[in-house]
Amino acid sequence: MRTKVVLACEVCQSRNYVTEKNKQSHSGRIEMKKFCKTCQEHTLHRETK
């Protein structure tokens, strides 16, 4: 089952991206390096609750 998750920047804590993940294959939280519009650079984004 795929569920929607929100990704937040680790530097400025702004919630920039919405994506989907498969809960059966990825039980933990997602971490990706994405571009933050607020910081104007590529930073680590983590899944929020």
UniProtKB/TrEMBL annotation:
Keywords: Ribonucleoprotein, Ribosomal protein. InterPro entries: Ribosomal_bL33 (IPR001705), Ribosomal_bL33_CS (IPR018264), Ribosomal_bL33_sf (IPR038584), Ribosomal_zn-bd (IPR011332). GO terms for cellular component: cytoplasm; ribonucleoprotein complex; ribosome. The keyword Ribonucleoprotein applies. Signal peptide: none annotated. GO terms for molecular function: structural constituent of ribosome. It comes from the Bacteria. Belongs to the bacterial ribosomal protein bL33 family. This is Large ribosomal subunit protein bL33. It comes from Halalkalibacter wakoensis JCM 9140. The gene is rpmG.
